[in-house]
Specification:
The complex is a heterodimer.
Chain A lengths: L6 H6 L1 H17 L18 H9 L2 H19 L20 H18 L19
Helix pairs in contact in A: 3-5
Chain B lengths: L3 H14 L18 E5 L2 E6 L5 E8 L11 H8 L9 H10 L3 E6 L4 E8 L3 H14 L4 H21 L1 H14 L13 H6 L2 H11 L5 E6 L3 H11 L9 H6 L10 E6 L4 E8 L11 H10 L13 H5 L6 E8 L4 E9 L1 H19 L5 H20 L1 H15 L5 H9 L3 H13 L3 E6 L7 H4 L4
Parallel strand pairs in B: 2-6, 7-11
Antiparallel strand pairs in B: 1-2, 3-5, 3-6, 4-5, 8-10, 8-11, 9-10
Classes of the chains: A mainly alpha, B alpha+beta.
């Protein structure tokens, strides 16, 4: 499932973006996942069909890198350590690689649901009015 | 959100775009048996306005297994038809077609890839648009390939492996023509999908298959003017020419006949194919009507219920459980006349020996003139019948248009069959026996005969 996000709302308004950007950067750094070498999309819970399918659709290289990041982070967490500073995830590397796939799958599911709930109406062909009959 | 009113409009817009035209079975249409051919924005079209409330429309592309660049590409492209396009998802295409009460189909042969639909007459514009969309804007996504296309290809592979007859025919073709026409129609091994196939290779091949000079639109039960108008409108976005490097790498050489023998062990069933060089399609350059007459003279398959029929080979069949058929497989520039025997190994061998004896007796002139007369009538009937059978006519016509801008006209082939003389048939049988045969045996190799045992040259 894609996470609910205020980002589109904020990004639409330039003044708000200017305000929020430093705050967002601070928050992302403070949440700590970058210090373990993870990306934000690595944190999406994967215990549901949609995300599992999205994970299957990842290109092989992306899938490999994801597993590598997770194992590294797990190891760090076990040994109570953080990555050296130069190996932290850089903000420009922290891109959504999974979210677009999840959104695509959600759109597919939604389309299916909409089509299931479709109401069919037969087109009514407009009849030409014949000459009116007066009695 | 996908608004429902938009969907309705999409599906039914076409009905409002034009005055509703109606034609009922009893009314006479222009009613020609002949195809009318033409050109609409660079696309070759053929149509015949058979009376009736339904239309069969097909896009016939010169992209059969003969022309594929890598093994399995045709199969992949066929399975990608009607998947998702830039404008519509696969699900939506299926639902919309369901609502219009239509049937979608796609299949391929050695030479052609056919993508078609059957629908009510009034929906012509919708389906012309759909075919144009499939040709120009199908999305070849990797996950669609792995999730939907690949399992179908694997099924086709399994189906092929389970059928001794299909294996024998495929083997006979590859003996006869080596590459090109000899390429198996269904995946004969797993190499296509383990080694060559991927969404992007299929997409690359689609640029060849769906370039304007390489396909034709054929319709049965549509007015020529209508078809031409809608093709003009919707096929503008299709690429006018395949990329140069692609054109060069696709092999399009004159087929050459080689011949030989192959024996394949198989656990379920026995199949023996005796194949000889045959006749090309009427639209190709090597049309020999006498081969068709010879095929129906040998025959084997009965048209009548509860009887094995009167053709020479049906009399030769060793037991009621043994099936024999003779077919003249025609391609654009070559053909294969083959006798296929199926049944238990003992009966197959006995029947094959009889079949070769029969060929010898035809070649030696020991055949009644009546039999040849009967065979001519049967061949003519079969020819006209296949032509009337809409789906067979569609592919033949499309293929004729692509290869030589000539539609497959039944009246002319029927006339050619009428003109065949007894001497021609005998001479044809003689040439067959003198040329190299392609013999393939599939099944119990301990019992199935070698070509030499049968007295055939390989």
């Amino acid at each position: 499932m894609s996470q609910p996000s205020l980002a589109p709302f904020v990004l639409k308004r330039q003044w708000l973006t200017r305000w929020m950007k430093p705050l967002a950067n601070w928050y992302a750094n403070a949440s700590g996942y970058r210090k373990l070498g993870l990306r934000a999309d690595d944190l999406i819970p994967e215990e549901n069909d949609t995300v599992l399918l999205a994970l299957k659709r990842l290109p092989p290289k992306e899938a490999y890198d994801r597993v590598f990041r997770m194992r590294r982070a797990f190891q760090l967490s076990l040994s109570h350590q953080l990555l050296p500073k130069e190996e932290h995830t850089k903000p420009e590397e922290d891109v959504p690689y999974l979210t677009p796939l999840i959104q695509e799958i959600e759109a597919e599911l939604k389309e299916r649901e909409d089509l299931e709930a479709m109401v069919i109406e037969k087109p009514t062909v407009q009849k030409k009015h014949g000459p009116k009959l007066y009695h | 959100m996908l608004s429902r009113s938009v969907l309705r409009r999409g599906a039914l817009r076409c009905q409002f775009a034009q005055p509703v035209q109606k034609r009922y079975l009893a009314e006479a249409a222009s009613g020609s048996f002949q195809y009318q051919t033409g050109d609409a924005s660079g696309v070759k079209i053929a149509s015949r306005d058979l009376a009736g409330p339904t239309t069969t429309l097909a896009l016939v592309a010169k992209a059969g297994t003969r022309y594929q660049l890598l093994p399995g590409l045709t199969e992949g492209l066929e399975k990608f038809a009607f998947r998702g396009t830039e404008r519509r998802s696969a699900l939506r295409i299926v639902r919309e077609s369901e609502l219009l009460g239509a049937e979608l189909e796609s299949y391929h042969s050695r030479e052609n890839l056919v993508i078609g639909a059957k629908f009510l007459r009034d929906d012509l514009p919708y389906f012309v648009e759909l075919l144009a969309e499939v040709a120009s804007s199908t999305k070849y996504l990797p996950h669609v390939y792995t999730e939907e296309v690949l399992p179908l290809i694997q099924l086709a592979h399994k189906k092929f492996l389970a059928s001794p007859k299909a294996i024998a025919l495929s083997s006979a073709h590859s003996l006869a023509f080596h590459r090109g026409l000899g390429t198996p129609v269904s995946p004969a091994s797993s190499t296509p999908y383990t080694k060559y196939l991927a969404a992007d290779t299929i997409e690359y091949f689609s640029q060849f298959a769906y370039a304007k000079p390489n396909f034709a639109i054929v319709a049965n039960g549509a007015e020529h003017a209508d078809l031409s108008k809608w093709v003009n409108e919707f096929f503008g976005g299709v690429s006018a020419k395949a990329p140069e490097d692609l054109l060069q790498s696709v092999r399009d050489k004159q087929s050459k006949y080689y011949g030989g023998e192959e024996r394949i062990a198989h656990g379920s069933g026995n199949s023996l194919v005796l194949a000889f060089p045959g006749s090309s399609s009427f639209t190709g350059g090597f049309y020999k009507p006498e081969i068709q007459v010879l095929a129906s003279l040998l025959g084997g398959k009965s048209n009548i219920k509860w009887s094995s029929g009167f053709s020479l080979l049906s009399k030769a069949a060793a037991s009621p459980g043994t099936s024999v058929e003779t077919k003249s497989a025609i391609y654009s520039d070559a053909g294969l006349l083959y006798i296929n025997v199926n049944g238990t190994a003992e009966n197959v061998s006995a029947t094959a020996i009889e079949a070769v004896k029969t060929l010898h007796s035809i070649a030696g002139g020991k055949i009644a003139a009546e039999d040849i007369k009967k065979a001519k009538a049967a061949a003519k009937f079969q020819e006209l019948e296949t032509g009337q059978d809409i789906s067979a006519g569609l592919e033949l016509t499309g293929s004729g248009l692509i290869h030589g801008s000539k539609a497959y006209q039944l009246d002319e082939t029927a006339k050619a069959i009428d003109g065949v003389t007894d001497a021609q048939v005998k001479a044809a049988a003689k040439t067959l026996l003198e040329s190299k045969a392609s013999v393939s045996a599939v099944g119990d190799l301990f019992l199935l005969p070698y070509a030499e045992d049968l007295g055939l040259k390989v």
